[in-house]
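Narrative summary of target 7.
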Amino acid sequence: MAPDLMRDGSETQARLIGELLLYENGLSWDDGSKKWSDGSLRIPGLGYNDSLGVNRNNDGTYEFFTAGMILNRDDDAFEAWKDYNGSEKYDVRDNTSASMWKKNLFTGETWSTIFGGAWTSIDVTSGSEVTVDGHTYKGNTIISDYFKMHLQAYGNSEKYGVSRVGVLTDALLLNGDFLNKTGTTVNDSIPWYLHPFSQNAGSAGCIGPMSAEYFEGSWNKPNEPTSGAWYMDQFLQQADQYGLYDGYEFNMYLGGRVRP
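Modeled conformation, tokenized:
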């Protein structure tokens, strides 16, 4: 039985359009095993680690897209915390650059945005420690070249100053743990997030924009320009402009100094 396309909600519509593609390409759904089987589906332009996204346009047509982020770590990124010392230098805590892109799979049209401000992606506050080549580092830093992320509502918005965060998933950590689809590990029930930070970049493995070095206000106030929350809000606004709905899986690529 083909899916009902009259149900409401953009996320539901996107899922249903994806299901329709599967049906049209010969796949069938088994209620017993809860799996798709048979058929062969090829989406033009969908590359490694990409996820298919679907938006309904105002004219009733559908946009099929893929999207992601590119994170690039500085050469001295792992100096942020090394051999039991956290760096006092802001430009070391500012150890990552970030950009976002989106591609229409059928027209090939591509958009990209480079985010300003400082970003961090190195664990400097967790309890676990790992020794690599005679040096000690915090263990919760992501070291996967490719992983995933999806946006979701964050109930305790007063903590970070924003109502949504990115949940980081499908990633290997320096200590050997792996982030599952909930952003957690077998040893830690608290998810790894993309969220804002103060100038101190107190990350326990999470990733996100920091307040500017000269910023003197509250880092989690999005209405204060150059705060960490303000930069995070810029990111969320851009995701909305791209039509990247909550739950869509970003293609996350990590380059530069991925490992110590």
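The CA atoms of residues 222 and 230 lie 4 Å apart.
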